[in-house]
Amino acid sequence: MRYADPSANRDLLGNRTLLFIFICAFALVTLLQQILYGRNYIKRSLQFGWQSGDQLANWTGLFNVTDDPAVQSGSDSSSRYRPPASDQGGGKPILRVKQSELFDRWKSLQMCRWAMNISEANQFKSTLSRCCNAPSFLFTTQKNTPLGTKLKYEVDTSGIYHINQEIFRMFPKDMPYYRSQFKKCAVVGNGGILKNSRCGREINSADFVFRCNLPPISEKYTMDVGVKTDVVTVNPSIITERFHKLEKWRRPFYRVLQVYENASVLLPAFYNTRNTDVSIRVKYVLDDFESTQAVYYFHPQYLVNVSRYWLSLGVRAKRISTGLILATAALELCEENPAESCYIVFLTCGLRAGKH
Ligand SMILES: *[C@@H]1O[C@H](CO)[C@@H](O)[C@H](O)[C@H]1NC(C)=O
Ligand SMILES: *[C@@H]1O[C@H](CO)[C@@H](O)[C@H](O)[C@H]1NC(C)=O
Ligand SMILES: *[C@@H]1O[C@H](CO)[C@@H](O)[C@H](O)[C@H]1NC(C)=O
Ligand SMILES: *[C@@H]1O[C@H](CO)[C@@H](O)[C@H](O)[C@H]1NC(C)=O
Ligand SMILES: *[C@@H]1O[C@H](CO)[C@@H](O)[C@H](O)[C@H]1NC(C)=O
């Protein structure tokens, strides 16, 4: 792993063990992303991250990253908004990683042992609340995005969305979650990393479970990934590719969401201009089918600030993955005193805070 400026790390996270755990956390997310693009046990069409190639560009610490046109085209900023590979006719997973090798690395990550320093942890939380403030800004709400706001997109920075009455009414009044509301949270990706892990029960026992990108939770996988889902993110490119942008039949998409029963659906509607219409249509679909599932949109400023935060710590990635964004939010929304519980079951059963 490459960290640009070690002294910056020390300022924010004086305690080395705490730093280490976040390095591990980040590595795990990266690992997930690699698997996402490599061999997978879910349908290929479900694989794409919403950030059009939701993987880490120059991440060379753990594995070899092969040529990805969306990544390689480098500094041209338009490449950031390019559709995933399948839009370009390919559709093949681009990154191929030896699974056995990944598994070994993953195991070594699991060895990561540490003790929580509560004062350090609280300090870290207050740093996060100053930079990012998930309890107020994770989603667009009527409070943080009043009627008439000219909302800036995260990546199409010249693009602006005028918040009109119609979309304003779709927003929740305020953030539905507050600081340290949940004791134990889980952020579960949709890579194959949990295969045969038997983590299902542990994930189900969490108070709050985030899942990335419509992962399968059918009976076949229950033992490994559990079923409990409180928030599920959806990648608009999946809606575009598999569900015809919801311009045709909507029931197939509705059925997919129904699998997650009471889960709220979270979309990056204001990530780039292409995402907006399809994301808003998800709300219409759920309303039409009289679903009780809530629809939320990431606040673009939150995404910007979280990315900026991690980049300032020297994380060398072109984009911050959805998994890392959710994990960052979980750090604020979950338990104040993590020493008393496991507070993040992070993608695997391996990495956990607390309980030592
Ligand atoms: C990634 O590496 C390539 C070649 O080493 C370089 O041209 C490019 O600017 C790098 N991108 C980032 C985001 O660091
Ligand atoms: C990465 O690629 C280089 C050259 O292609 C190879 O020598 C090296 O062993 C690879 N590393 C891993 C971890 O696969
Ligand atoms: C926790 O971190 C603080 C501040 O860095 C330090 O003064 C304290 O000794 C640490 N406590 C333990 C138990 O390591
Ligand atoms: C994001 O960062 C900017 C600049 O550091 C700050 O003014 C703003 O309040 C932050 N936004 C949130 C949602 O915390
Ligand atoms: C969904 O909510 C209903 C009523 O609150 C509850 O009975 C049911 O168990 C929930 N389903 C899941 C999967 O949590």
UniProtKB/TrEMBL annotation:
Involved in the synthesis of gangliosides GD1c, GT1a, GQ1b, GP1c and GT3 from GD1a, GT1b, GM1b and GD3 respectively. It is a single-pass type II membrane protein. InterPro entries: Glyco_trans_29, Glycosyltr_29_Sialyltrsf, GT29-like_sf, Sialyl_trans. It is found in: Golgi apparatus membrane. One of its GO terms (molecular function) is alpha-N-acetylneuraminate alpha-2,8-sialyltransferase activity. GO terms for biological process: lipid metabolic process; N-glycan processing; oligosaccharide metabolic process. This is Alpha-2,8-sialyltransferase 8E. Residues 70-92 are annotated as: Disordered. One of its GO terms (cellular component) is Golgi membrane. Pathway: Protein modification; protein glycosylation. The chain crosses the membrane at residues 17-37.
